[in-house]
TrEMBL record, chains A, B, C, D:
This is HD domain-containing protein. Residues 61-178 form the HD domain. GO terms for molecular function: dGTPase activity. Coiled coil: none annotated. GO terms for biological process: dGTP catabolic process. PROSITE patterns: HD. It comes from the Bacteria.
Amino acid sequence: MKYSHEKLMEEKVFKDPVHRYIHVRDRVIWDLIGTKEFQRLRRIKQLGTTYLTFHGAEHSRFNHSLGVYEIVRRIVDDVFVNRQEWKQEERLLSLCAALLHDLGHGPFSHSFEKVFNLDHEQFTQQIILGDTEVNAVLKKVAEDFPKKVAEVIAKTYANKLVVSLISSQIDADRMDYLQRDAYFTGVSYGHFDMERILRVMRPREEQVVIKQSGMHAVEDYIMSRYQMYWQVYFHPVTRSAEVILTKILHRAKYLSESGYTFAQEPVHFYSMFNGHVTLADYLKMDEAVMLYYFQCWENEEDAILKDLCSRFANRRLFKYVEFHPSNEQMNKLMELNTLFKKAGIDPEYYLVVDSSSDLPYDFYRPGEEEERLPIHLLKNNGEIRELSRESQIVDAISGKRRTDHKLYFPEDLLRDESTKKIVKRQIRRLLDLPE
Amino acid sequence: MKYSHEKLMEEKVFKDPVHRYIHVRDRVIWDLIGTKEFQRLRRIKQLGTTYLTFHGAEHSRFNHSLGVYEIVRRIVDDVFVNRQEWKQEERLLSLCAALLHDLGHGPFSHSFEKVFNLDHEQFTQQIILGDTEVNAVLKKVAEDFPKKVAEVIAKTYANKLVVSLISSQIDADRMDYLQRDAYFTGVSYGHFDMERILRVMRPREEQVVIKQSGMHAVEDYIMSRYQMYWQVYFHPVTRSAEVILTKILHRAKYLSESGYTFAQEPVHFYSMFNGHVTLADYLKMDEAVMLYYFQCWENEEDAILKDLCSRFANRRLFKYVEFHPSNEQMNKLMELNTLFKKAGIDPEYYLVVDSSSDLPYDFYRPGEEEERLPIHLLKNNGEIRELSRESQIVDAISGKRRTDHKLYFPEDLLRDESTKKIVKRQIRRLLDLPE
Amino acid sequence: MKYSHEKLMEEKVFKDPVHRYIHVRDRVIWDLIGTKEFQRLRRIKQLGTTYLTFHGAEHSRFNHSLGVYEIVRRIVDDVFVNRQEWKQEERLLSLCAALLHDLGHGPFSHSFEKVFNLDHEQFTQQIILGDTEVNAVLKKVAEDFPKKVAEVIAKTYANKLVVSLISSQIDADRMDYLQRDAYFTGVSYGHFDMERILRVMRPREEQVVIKQSGMHAVEDYIMSRYQMYWQVYFHPVTRSAEVILTKILHRAKYLSESGYTFAQEPVHFYSMFNGHVTLADYLKMDEAVMLYYFQCWENEEDAILKDLCSRFANRRLFKYVEFHPSNEQMNKLMELNTLFKKAGIDPEYYLVVDSSSDLPYDFYRPGEEEERLPIHLLKNNGEIRELSRESQIVDAISGKRRTDHKLYFPEDLLRDESTKKIVKRQIRRLLDLPE
Amino acid sequence: MKYSHEKLMEEKVFKDPVHRYIHVRDRVIWDLIGTKEFQRLRRIKQLGTTYLTFHGAEHSRFNHSLGVYEIVRRIVDDVFVNRQEWKQEERLLSLCAALLHDLGHGPFSHSFEKVFNLDHEQFTQQIILGDTEVNAVLKKVAEDFPKKVAEVIAKTYANKLVVSLISSQIDADRMDYLQRDAYFTGVSYGHFDMERILRVMRPREEQVVIKQSGMHAVEDYIMSRYQMYWQVYFHPVTRSAEVILTKILHRAKYLSESGYTFAQEPVHFYSMFNGHVTLADYLKMDEAVMLYYFQCWENEEDAILKDLCSRFANRRLFKYVEFHPSNEQMNKLMELNTLFKKAGIDPEYYLVVDSSSDLPYDFYRPGEEEERLPIHLLKNNGEIRELSRESQIVDAISGKRRTDHKLYFPEDLLRDESTKKIVKRQIRRLLDLPE
């Protein structure tokens, strides 16, 4: 039998707390899950440092990837199958792209990419197309199959319907992570009627559309997403941990470039520091490795690296105040900068502005930052209309970006009056900290 | 104000997926959570290798410890408070013991302890009594407070009622882990009406008792526990991962003792290998460190260490067959041992019998292995009766130990017919593997 | 002991699917639940005819009333107690008002009140103040206690804080029914984090306010409410059943006034027909009685009454089309009216426009229809701000009334071409019904 | 197209709180749901008087019937389809039998049948085979189709596999009611992993079997059932309401037979009283009708009927004490009987022994009361074994009948010392009531 059509003797079933069960019948999917590049996702948390705020959020990207696969499987096998707008030969491609879409994520992805100027999407492409176990499995399907999978994930694949299954404003990716992250954090947001949404999805040439009768379920989904962003993903305590993490990586890189002699040499990091990261280097990086180094670095001589690593490991995070980038506040920030230096606290590492920004939903504006496809409704008369034209609630919030800035600093150092008492008091007054 | 009575200005609340919220008002508890020994529990999974079977089971012992604390807090603050049999001065002691009862667990605790002959309970005692942040916080309450906390956890504390809150056949520890492990694995077992059980708990001199009216909820709890043991904790795939892990540690120790030169020196392991483990050594050990070494060891020269580490990281586990320790089967095992050697597969590492055994519930039999206190019911007339004398269901299963043996081996190696084809076929026939 | 302070020997606990348990310790509350006026609420469904759309919605107002009581109990006993802005002497009053607030509802309340021009709020007042078991219990607390309870429910009580617990835009009434109705219908809307909202409620002179930190939970609550209105409460199939019910009552009244001789005399209805309803008459009316008559009336001679009763009992409802009250559509409606008469289908009973309208949230506009108090947030600096000024989402939907009109008719009669074939075809064409 | 194969243009979906959605694609099923005999089930509660103990238990048999249908639909469409042991032509038969299996239930079925010596199973047969809307729909499928459906429900159908879907010790009936009754009462028992059980069901000639791998899920189901029986179905407060209901019907019958003149003539009951119940009479009986009479009878002259009806409507139930049918207790009962008469409280209506008894699970014992088929496991080697031979837990409870007797009486009357003070005190002493 052709490998692409090969079925397992007995269906494999994963117990999943979010979707109850994840079903695998295709030999290709089973083999992909068994590759070492996919198993590596077990060692990368789905929500990075969020577990320091919501202790339940310790779930990995492995979990999420299976979940996205399962949602796409249900769409194509239970809803699209036998519909003329759906080409059954895109089925396996869709499943593989869903399973592998996050394959290139690094440890604590957000900070990691920012500091080392890496892009997980590029690494996803490399893993799929390079000399890997994943590539070997995909190639057994067809010579050009890895390329197709990579294109779907890169959104360049010709059949936009397939692309839209995993990247639009209501795709399997988002539907899985909202529910999964809500489940593991335990927050009461993040719930919406996915079963209903799946049942009213219809394949159209350019994208998945949603039958009008499912509009309210979609409204609910959009509100869930909005709440999850501000309640979970942008939680200020998580951002504090993220700030510290970023500064650890910055410091290590700086020290390495300055010729500092590490007690624990950052072997795994050298290629990240010098900017020539091979796929093999990248794949060795996971959160266990990163935490191993942080533990070792708690004993380094460099006071800043040592302190930041200890803060991260032991959750001694920075505090924050609201910050609005007005002239007045920018002046205050510069003043604080000077005072921090006077107090012997390096502001480059200890005085950080962090911003978060989200667009709850948007209609399509080509060329703009958020280019994910908007949601389209299929009316009873066959007409297709963009969601915000039909939903009063969605229209009300559509295109309204919300941004939030905070200023982070180590309050404990500022409270320690054994040294620099006067300047620290000045700082505290400027930051409106209680006496 | 006395430190032991100090309350936080504003109650701290942790979002918890199992108990919804975990409430902290006591300064002592807040300070304990912030110690580095307690934060270390974030880097140790509650269920060790179970995540390789149930992918959701990635939660840490940090999670569980907060949960046990919260259950005891609800018992003492909502149920026991103002009852004459309860001494309010034991409140803080109970909370601290609940929070800290698992403090000494090592990474992948089960295998780790077995191979290195360590005992996490001893390390719990050392952390509480030794030179640690935890000890410093406890000592601020009273000079003898660390000792008391240690005694409660060691079950030697005079007030057995306090001890029974965290160690009996229905204690806060078990009630938390059953629910929590069910939640994160996603299995449908593990649910019982804890709220009901808490409401009918009553303090008595020697232990917590349960009002007769809660008997059915307790029966349900016992059945949940039974199911969780056989469905989750003793799952044969988890045991396979555990077998491999054990063998990795054995091999590394053996190599070290044999003078093998490691490419990645097992610095963190030396004291475990030589049996003189200081508290500082122990506390450095967490799962990130362990996984770091396993990754490095995938590149060692030693073929066995390398293979086992790769199996663990990439989830290429051993398969198993049922095994009953009869004469006949023991003979077969010896035969297999010989054949494995012939096939060039070292049976010491690749042919392993693993046994699991559980007692669903037991009345008290002093001196026997399972010494946890049995459950006592408080009848309406004030009489106290051991559970199995009242519950037909519990009586039916009481004291009935169930044991299960399995034989683990690497099926993939036995299938590889590039070498030793004939002997491998013999082995496969003996193991009843399909052709 | 004073009756108002009397506690039950043992707390009574009701198992409740929504709040898990409902706790009663006060003798007064226990006695009120045991009155026959309160037990009567078991024979009145919370959602009237909704069970014909959502089959799970068979729960009674008895359920909901206990739920509202429990929420207020949690607010006053767990959150407000010991706060200086809260007067403990208002506790029992608040609990009684919560429990009794819906006492005067009639069977299938909405239609019943409309047709007979009755007001359930007036009957609630009469039951509390009149010669009833409820009044007798309340009077045992204090001579003026029934009056106080009645005032809280009528919103005329001086202490507006107490009033706001059961009538504001975020009161115990709404919080219970949203969750309860979601639970019994099984829809996925209606969930919000009530536990969080309760914890951040604070008593202020004029009303309950919500701490700023709970704003997102409140946003979620408002969105839930919006979804429940349009997905459940205004569901067009439910409205169809409501239309038929209304027409049954209209017809029975009309027949009675026209001197028609009923086979089953509408004894229980006489006072409703003639407009002089005593409290005793009213209390005899429940849904069992109403359904009994409907069953009997299926055998009346009057074809319209007979048909409508049979439709209701056997769920042969009217179909509907969208209807916008434009000039054009009004003309069409008049045309349909004429054609229905020609077809021998009395349009007074068989051609009905029904409208629904809701305001998702509103700031306060005195004198306007929806006078429920808006929601106020308590900021960290002690300032109080109306919700829509702080929440972008709520501001976006605030004050935006949504209205929906539908035209109902018996499609089956129009399809029956055994008579009046031509005119029925005309009607169907006008209504855009498929051939 | 043949009616039996006709599909709805658009699948109909019912929102169900237990199974999330109930799916109907077959025209036959849709038409059956629309019959008046099926709609009548909306007016009969699934759990009779249980709502007086668990206020949430107000759900109807309509709900449950849809649920059983849905479970069978999932078994045959998702699990059995395409298996050779399954004959696809039995599909519609199975679905219809599942939907209609409870069609003949009367109001408050248990007491109603007992007093009037009726059998709901006989009426189910009559409705299916007689001159009804249900029969008309079934006959459109095939002339002998009603007979087949009736046979499946009567367990006389030749294909025992089909029978076992709705009547065995693990059938769709039980799986639905356990979950549904748990959901509506809100108890935490009644949960088990139905999805898992469905997935491991396999069709065999004589019955459904369960793959060995699902054994633990089945154990959990059996324990759930056990708990639901003793916690919910046999709850002593529910049995008290049942006792009163039975006595009302007895009294009304007795009065009617004695020539008593009713103010409200029991028209609907005449045929029940005289034992010649036609199908039409029976179908008119529902709980609305029954409650209507009870309300009227609260104003009858007969003191006993009046009192019992008022007790039922207003939940003034009997209290109970444990009762063991020993010689000693039987003597006590006779003594009480005499004393009740002396006290002017008719023991025939006011002193009642009620017994409950359940067998948690049983292997097959032909000819005995509980003849439902036992559960069989399908082992990996193809062997089929009765459950209790494989499961230690099930073996422990198998065949162990548990029985419970209680003695019910009106404590309020015994406390009223305005008359017969001395004899009432004697009674209270005999019953061990607190002074």
